[in-house]
């Protein structure tokens, strides 16, 4: 298994991982599946500074991806990023999410980042546990800011100081 920078040709596999979440879970508040064009824009936004990384298994299948994004475009926030990661539903519970989040934390340290923020749906216990297991602490909650699958959803904000 390797973690490497994503390329445009990975988009179909990344889309299939992400759109599964869009349609089946509250891990993202997107409601309509994303298109290749949407992901091309995400690639453009990330560029070389905050690349998208994929986890590729020994059969060259992409089983997860993740990235850091600026917390805000305002310059004063330049030492703070947010993390995002998605593991293919068939490959969860095998330590891959933890490996990828550890990798993203190391990348943030290399870039002299001081804070990583995670905004996680309150019902996403696996992601809350994953982040807490790597030192993130809960710093707040935004109640009922989301609405998906006919219910209101809250966001828990976690913070890791580097
Ligand atoms: C959250 C997610 C990234 C975790 O990835 P994963 O590869 O399944 O997780 P791992 O096997 O590396 O487990 C790491 C830790 O997460 C927690 N965890 C994982 N699965 C869990 C589950 N089903 N229930 C509770 N905690 C769980 C545990 O704390 C675990 O640590 P431990 O094994 O030492 O107890 C994955 O479930 C996922 O992609 N979910 C959908 C997308 C998503 O929620 N992304 C995050 C958006 S904020």
From TrEMBL:
Organism, scientific name: Caldicellulosiruptor morganii
Under the heading CDD domains, the entry gives:
NAT_SF
Cite the entry's keywords alphabetically.
Answer: Acyltransferase, Transferase
Carries keyword Acyltransferase? Answer: yes
Q: Where is the N-acetyltransferase domain?
A: 1-162
Which SUPFAM superfamilies does the UniProt record give? Acyl-CoA N-acyltransferases (Nat)
- State what protein this is by name: GNAT family N-acetyltransferase
Entry keyword Membrane: no
């Amino acid at each position: 298994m390797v973690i490497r920078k994503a390329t445009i040709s990975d988009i179909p596999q990344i889309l299939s991982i992400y759109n599964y979440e869009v349609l089946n879970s509250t891990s993202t508040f997107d409601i309509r599946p994303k298109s290749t064009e949407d992901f091309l824009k995400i690639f453009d936004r990330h560029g070389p500074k905050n690349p998208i990384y994929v986890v590729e298994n020994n059969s060259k299948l992409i089983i997860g991806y993740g990235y850091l994004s600026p917390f805000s475009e305002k310059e004063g926030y330049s030492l703070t990023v947010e993390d995002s990661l998605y593991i293919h539903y068939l490959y969860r519970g095998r330590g891959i999410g933890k490996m990828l989040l550890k990798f993203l934390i190391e990348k943030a340290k290399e870039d002299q980042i001081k804070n990583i923020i995670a905004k996680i749906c309150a019902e996403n216990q696996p992601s809350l546990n994953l982040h807490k297991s790597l030192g993130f602490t809960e710093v707040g909650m935004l109640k009922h800011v989301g609405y998906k699958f006919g219910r209101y959803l809250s966001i828990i904000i976690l913070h890791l100081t580097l």
